[in-house]
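TEACHING EXERCISE
Course module: macromolecular assemblies
Task: Read the component lines below, then compare them to the predicted structure of the full complex.
Student: A.B.
Group: 4
Components provided:
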Amino acid sequence: MTAVAERPAVEPRRKGPMSRQNLVATITTGYLPIILATAVVVVPLLWMVLASFKSPGELLTQTPSVLPDSFAPSNYGEAADRVPFGRLFLNSAIVTVVGAGIKVVLAVLTAYALVFVRFPGKKIIFGLVLATLMVPPQVQVLPNYIFISELGGRDTYWGIILPGLATGFGTFLLRQQFLTLPGSILEAAEIDGASHWKRLTRIVVPISTPAIATVALVNIVFEWNEYLWPLVIVSDPNMMTLPVGLTLLFNSENGADAYGVLMAGTVMVILPVLVIFAAFQRYIVSGLTQGAVKD
Amino acid sequence: MGVSQVTTTEVPRAGSSAAPVRSAQPRPKRRRFSSRSRRDYLVFLALATPNLLLIALFTYRPLLNNIYYSTLNYTLGSQVATPVGLGNYKEFFTSDDTQGVLLVTAVFTVATVGGSMALGLLVALALNKRVKGVGFARAAVFSPFVLSGVGVGLVWLFIFDPVVGVLSYVLRLLGGSSPEWFNDPTLTLVMVIIVYVWKNVGYAAVIYLAGLQSINKDLLEAAAIDGANSRRTFFSIVLPLLSPTTFFLLVTTVLNSLQAFDLLRIMNPLGRGTNTLIYEAYLQAFGGANRAGYSATISTVLFGLLVLLTVFQLVFLERRVHYR
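Instructor-supplied answer key:
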């Protein structure tokens, strides 16, 4: 993006009126819109990071400065005083790793069964799995809340994790992937006497690593951001996940000077996902844009 | 594909071993088949049962329970529930509040879907070129879609704050003053719509980008040779060729918008001006109203609406898929 000046405005091969049109096209649809679109996304996030280092005095002003006076993490310390931030981070990490991990395993097993194992009515079963993508999680919250409460799952890790484990999204994505695998390899393995378990662990999983990674990453992002369910099932601050804890922080901080502390908390919930996204962007985008969008 | 492979290999094998001996009698065939496949059935059950059980318990059971709860007058945590038959539905369809909720839902859905699709197409056009840095721009534009709605909501509350927010500072520099985003329900809805579009526009952009890149370059070159200018090319060739993409996006973004929750909850907890169907269902059960039965009624109505939309999509998509 720094190379604006170096880029030839006119493509050399085309001539005459086309070149003039190209010039116009370069200006109207060239770098400027790209920079603009990027800035609209990046600037608010940058603003969040900068504000997380600003003191109440710097935030209460009518003429905000761009850079904070110092980059001392005092707001982060303050946030940790109001809500147990270390604990919230740990809770989020546990829920994310355990939840996403189990979901991936369930998705692999179900998809393998649906593609490679004989069973009557598999199409109907797959239809029922696929149809879950259409059921909005919000519609399930009240009955699941009553059910999990009856089982004594409020303010527990399993209570947070369990209802979200049913996985239609991962099963769907991996089934699509498994269907593209060459059947001859698996037939050869079957003739050689390899059991289903061997065929799954030695053949199907190793050659499907990218798709499995996609499912894992998308589930990690979803679990980390998950809000409504932990919001209703947890009331003990020590069991809250980060987004729920942020809500608590927001409720307990009402003055305008609290934005610094709030932005510090917000950085804690947003930054890990940004890092993961930056590292595995291709997997996550492809996972989220093929087929269904939610889980 | 794989399914058909499995069945084509399985049928001849069972047939070829049994056929030469007693081709007309199905019984030995079936016995042999069942002994082989019984093991497979068990394997299938072992692999798929955990997930299928979870789906039954936590996805399908709630749908049925909701229908049951929707016939009750019930408060969360209470031991008693009074059956009211269709009373909750009667109330929902005749109450004045419902009209407000439906209006908010309609405005929010139309504005967010229209906004993110129109802007998404513009962004996709801007990003559809091979220049330095465009990879970064594509990733950046998509990134808000994967961020926590709670975090995004808080960032924008800070920006929109009428007193200390940077938006009000910019507006003051321009000689204006900040609108009362937090106090005027209509403006709160506008604010939430803007933030929702900001968060979701990257999804539409990436889908549109894929659509643009699948367009045959020859068509565009032919149009250029015929003397069509870029605007004409866009409206007469590009946009029509994108119509399957547009339709797919329309369906997915409508479904997503109808399920928006996180931003609404964090930006406007009491829901004044932003109580969509989903949010009203949440408020009725967990927001102090304590009317779980009525909440289940709203959820059931909403789910019915989503089913209708999906069926509509399936019927309509059949025709659209064969566009080319």
